Amino acid sequence: MSTGLAVVVLGAAGGIGRHVVTEALRAGHRVTATARHPDRLPNPDLPAEQTARLTVTRADVRDTASLETAMAGHDVVVSAVGPPGRHARGLYSDGARATVAAMDRCGVDRFLGVTSAGVRYDDPELAPWYRLLVRPLLRELYADMIAMEDLITASDLDWTLVRPVLLLDRDPTDLYRVADAATPPRGRSVTRADVARFIVAELHERRWTRRHPTIA
After folding, report:
1. Which of 18, 74, 101, 215 has the fewest beta carbons under 10 Å from its own?
2. Of 25-39, 42-56, 66-80, 97-111, where does mean pLDDT reach its minimum?
3. Is there a domain that residue 1 lies in?
4. How confident is the model at residue 2 (pLDDT cuts 50, 70, 90)?
5. 3-state secondary structure the chain
6. What's a Pfam family in this record (predicted)?
7. What is the CATH number of the domain that holds 197?
8. 98, 74, 207: which is closest to 155 by C-alpha?
């Protein structure tokens, strides 16, 4: 079995974040799960020897000091932060600034973050109805995601930016497909659990360093 890493999960109470926590524990990693409201984090349905490697802590992705506290002594940061609705209000870009600063101060240089396939407006696999009807409604959200990506890619971090298509709350399939900076052909949806499995696999595989894997 591979040697476990010390992993910080930002946004661990969210749909993808909670799956990342569970899959990382199953894979043998030590996990620090962070959220603004740690009491909202679900308890992973895992054996005691796995949950013993879990630490839950409060951190605000916009607050560099709280992020430093959470990140100290870790190997990698996974960011699965996201707003509850369709307005980002600077969450992605503000969070990226604070995250990069905290990682620099803590000496952590590996970052895996989640944005969306929708950030690439010219993606030929983006359905016309989505481009014309849905994307305008999410213009502010996608603009903030793009700002986050720009901040991360301009940094010195060892980064991977995961771009899922339409997210579903279903069981993992392990049938997902991945392409670099483009949606796989006819890729319309993916489960949050599959996105988490891809992220946790990438912790050791490191196949997508400084790339934009789009998953469907």
Report:
1. 101
2. 42-56
3. no
4. low
5. CCCCCEEEEECCCCHHHHHHHHHHHHCCCEEEEEECCHHHCCCCCCCHHHHCCEEEEECCCCCHHHHHHHHCCCCEEEECCCCCCCCCCCHHHHHHHHHHHHHHHHCCCEEEEECCHHHCCCCCCCCHHHHHHHHHHCHHHHHHHHHHHHHHHCCCCEEEEEEECEEECCCCCCCCCEEECCCCCCCCEEEHHHHHHHHHHHHHHCCCCCCCEEEC
6. NAD_binding_10
7. 3.40.50.720
8. 98
Domain assignment present for 42: yes
For the segment 148-190, what is each residue's pLDDT rounded down to a tens digit?
A: 999 999 999 999 999 999 999 999 999 999 999 999 999 999 9
Query: Residue 86 is part of which domain span?
Result: 6-215
- pLDDT for the residue numbered 174: 96
Query: How many degrees, rounded to 5, is the angle at CA 128 between CA 123 and CA 130?
Result: 85
CA distance 53 to 30: 5
Q: Scanning the structure block, which residue is given the tokens 């607050």? A: 63
- Helices 64-71 & 91-106, crossing angle to 10 degrees? 50
Domain total in the chain: 1
> What's the whole-model pTM score?
0.94
Q: Which residue type sits at 170?
A: R
Q: Which is nearest to 122 in space by CA: 163, 182, 164?
A: 182
pLDDT greater than 80 at residue 109: yes
